[in-house]
Amino acid sequence: MEVRRMLEPVATGIAALRMSDDDLDDLARILDDMRGAADDHERLIQFDTAFHRTVVAATGNETLTSLLDGLSSRTLRARVWRGLIEGNSAHTTIEEHHAIYVALRSRDQLLAQASALLHVNTSESWLRAVLAQPEGDHAGAPSAGAGPRSLVRP
Among candidates 13, 33, 35, which has minimal Cα distance to 25? Predict the structure, then answer.
């Protein structure tokens, strides 16, 4: 999550300057799909991943895209788990993606970067809070072997 926080906001800022109108239209469709999947956390995460991949791919930097794809897959379990135990996370996720989209659509590099930082920080802060709790205090935690300590491992 820390590395994602370091890279993804900067990539989003670069994307604000490089995204094509077609890329932005694709993001709008993905955002609509996210809204439609708000009650299905696994589908929502699939659209979330597609959203971020579209943004990062727009930088034109294949190395950065590959790095962030790897980071996204490493944090997938944490994001799914958050969706399952935190009732308002889908709404928050969709609103944060909408803010990123608006910044990208307006080609505002700094706002896009700040919006992406806020979004990644929300997830990272949640995960840090969960990891700080004693092992048995995780309400809604998945079954044995899938607790918070294993959430960020591949």
Answer: 33
Tell me the per-residue pLDDT of 42-98, one tens digit each, with 9 for 90 and over.
898 899 989 999 999 999 999 999 988 887 765 555 555 555 556 678 888 899 999
Residue position matching structure tokens 């895209």: 65
Chain-centre distance for alpha carbon 114: 14
Q: Say which DSSP state 146 is in.
A: -
For the entire predicted model, the pTM comes to 0.80
Cα–Cα distance between 120 and 59 in angstroms, integer? 18
Nearest to 121 by CA among 35, 22, 12: 12
Q: What is the largest CA-CA distance in the chain?
A: 48
Q: In terms of Cα–Cα distance, which of 102, 108, 97 is closest to 13?
A: 108
Q: Which residues of 51-63 are buried (b: 16+ CB within 10 A; e: fewer)?
A: bbebbbbbbebee
